[in-house]
Amino acid sequence: MELECECGNACIKNSEEILLEIETAHSPCSICSPIKLKKFRPLKDQLNLDSINLQWGKCECGKRHIDYVMAHILKIMINEEIQHDRSTLRNSAVPLITPAYPLKNEPYLRENSLIVLASKMDEKCAEIIHREVSEVKAVLKGEIKNTVGIKDFSSSPHVYDLLAGCDLRCDLLNTPFGPICVHKNQSQIHIEVPRHRSPKITSVSLFIFDVANIPLMPPSSLWLYPITMITFKV
Ligand SMILES: [Zn+2]
Ligand SMILES: [Zn+2]
After folding, report:
1. Do the Cβ atoms of 85 and 109 come closer than 8 Å?
2. Where is 162: in which H helix or E strand?
3. Number of compact structural domains in the chain
């Protein structure tokens, strides 16, 4: 059965599509240029905010280094007086890329590859960010330290507010059966950072293998040969 996103767009890709793109999804092309911005220094002390627009830092291949994108977002937040004009990249918003998998270097982003989580945000600013910054797929309002979910049976669920766009994003989790694509609405589910080895996946795998007596694949093959890639949505 084909999975469909509630927004009506093609946010859920099948495993074959994702498998084809993961090698290059967040990598620079041969002429992509990085930018060196200091995360703890006010953005306005490092560049002229008026020079920032969608073309700023954009390569011919259509990607921008993540710092260009986050600086563009912070500029809009400052213009909308969501953040003060001495704000830094570190205290403005949390970037959540999609699809997410362990990266060796900072990502270069293409259209609809970033969900932004900010504790200070309103609907108007979120709409402007979503409209003007093409890399942004959705804007969420919430505190990253407040974990999304249900604490216990007597509590009501804690969620982030989806203010603009579609917050469906994909994590690639490594398992003994190969990578699994987990699509999730990020406003409703806690944030996880995919790693090469997940203690949670390893524990569950060992239990299943122990009970079902299934032979383990060699560890070196887990990421290199994802022949059993599966896509599902939570
Ligand atoms: Zn969607
Ligand atoms: Zn490029």
Report:
1. no
2. strand 161-165
3. 1
Is the predicted pLDDT of residue 231 greater than 70, yes or no? no
Ligand 2 center to 150 CA (angstroms): 42
CA of 6 to the centre of ligand 1 (A): 6
Mean pLDDT on 172-192 = 82
Domain contains 229:
no
**Helical residues (DSSP H) of 119-192, grouped into ranges:** 123-132
Residues with CB under 5 A from ligand 2 (ion): 29, 32, 59, 61
Both tokens assigned to 100? 């997410």
Domain that holds residue 33: 15-168
**Is the model's pLDDT at 220 over the cut of 60?**
no
pTM: 0.84
Instruction: Output 203 or 138, whichever has higher pLDDT.
Output: 138
